[in-house]
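Hi support team,

I've been running sequence recovery on a batch of backbones for a student project. Most finish fine, but this one hangs at about 90% for roughly twenty minutes before it completes. I'm not sure whether the input is malformed or the queue is just slow. I've pasted the C-alpha cells below so you can try to reproduce it. Let me know if you need the job ID as well.

Thanks,
M.K.
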C-alpha cells in the first residue's frame, strides 16, 4: 500500500472506507476547519494517532504537493503466502462439498480493478487472490475504496512466479481455468465444479502466453453487443458467479 495519503478529502474517504491508517501527520499551522475536525474525529475512532509537525516535513514527504497541511500514514497490507491460500482452500473444500475458488491475476495493473475483483471474490466466497509481486497492482488506498472494504477480508498472496503458484495449486487438486477471448468454449459450457483456480489477464494483453500454457481449461464470456470486451473486473465477476452457480448446493 502507498505509504502516505495526501489531502483532507482523500484522508476522510480513506478513513471512511476502512483503509488501515496508522497515524495522521498534521502541520502545526493548519487551519482547523470542518474537514480537519472530521479527520480528527474519524482518526480517533480508527485508533490512529495524530502528530503535529512542521509544514516542511509534509512538503518533504509529499509526492504531489497537495497535502493541504495533512497526510495519513498507512499500515502495510498484510499479504500472505501461497501456502495460506492453499490452507484456506482446503478448509473451504472440506466445508462446502469439495468446492473452492482461488483467483489469479496475471499482472493486473490498476489498483481499482484489483479492489473491484476482491469485492466480488469476497461475495462469492473465494479463498483468496494471487498476484505477482512485480509489474502488478498492489493493495493501496484506491483498492480499499473500490472494494468497499472487502479487500480486508480476502487473503492476497504476492508471488514471484505465477507459473510456480499455478503448479502448486495443481498439486493440491485444482483445475486452472483461464478466461481468454481466444477460447473456443463459453464459460457456461466449461466445467467449473470443485476446486478451481480462475486466471484473469492484464487489462490490455490478457493472459500471458506462458501462463496460458500452464492452464487446463480455457473459457470466454459471450459478447453480443457492439463493444468487443468487458473491463477485467466485470469479466472476473461474471466468471466467479458462473463458478458459484455451478457449485451451488
Amino acid at each position: 500500500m502507498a505509504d502516505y495519503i495526501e489531502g483532507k478529502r482523500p484522508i476522510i474517504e480513506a478513513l471512511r472506507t476502512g483503509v488501515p491508517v496508522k497515524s495522521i501527520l498534521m502541520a502545526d499551522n493548519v487551519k482547523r476547519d470542518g474537514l480537519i475536525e472530521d479527520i480528527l474525529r474519524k482518526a480517533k475512532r480508527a485508533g490512529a494517532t495524530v502528530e503535529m509537525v512542521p509544514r516542511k516535513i509534509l512538503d518533504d514527504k509529499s509526492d504531489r504537493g497537495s497535502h493541504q497541511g495533512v497526510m495519513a500514514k498507512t499500515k502495510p497490507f498484510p499479504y500472505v503466502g501461497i501456502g495460506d491460500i492453499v490452507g484456506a482452500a482446503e478448509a473451504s473444500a472440506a466445508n462446502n462439498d469439495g468446492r473452492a475458488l482461488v483467483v489469479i491475476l496475471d499482472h493486473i495493473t490498476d489498483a481499482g480493478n484489483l479492489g473491484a475483483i476482491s469485492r466480488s471474490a469476497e461475495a462469492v466466497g473465494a479463498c483468496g487472490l494471487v498476484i505477482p509481486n512485480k509489474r502488478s497492482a498492489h493493495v493501496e488506498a484506491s483498492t480499499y475504496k473500490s472494494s468497499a472494504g472487502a479487500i480486508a477480508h480476502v487473503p492476497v498472496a504476492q508471488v514471484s512466479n505465477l507459473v510456480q503458484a499455478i503448479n502448486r495449486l495443481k498439486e493440491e487438486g485444482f483445475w486452472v481455468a483461464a478466461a481468454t477471448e481466444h477460447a473456443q468454449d463459453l464459460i457456461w459450457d466449461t466445467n467449473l465444479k470443485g476446486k478451481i483456480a480462475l486466471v484473469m489477464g492484464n487489462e490490455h494483453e490478457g493472459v500471458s502466453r506462458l501462463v496460458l500454457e500452464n492452464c487446463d481449461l480455457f473459457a470466454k464470456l459471450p459478447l453480443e453487443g457492439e463493444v468487443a470486451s468487458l473491463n477485467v473486473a466485470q469479466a472476473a465477476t461474471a466468471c466467479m458467479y458462473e463458478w458459484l452457480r455451478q457449485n451451488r448446493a
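--
Follow-up from support: It reproduced on our side and the slowdown came from queue contention, not your input. Strands lie at 4-6, 21-27, 49-53, 70-74, 100-105, 128-132, 156-159, 175-179, 195-200, 217-219. No action needed from you.
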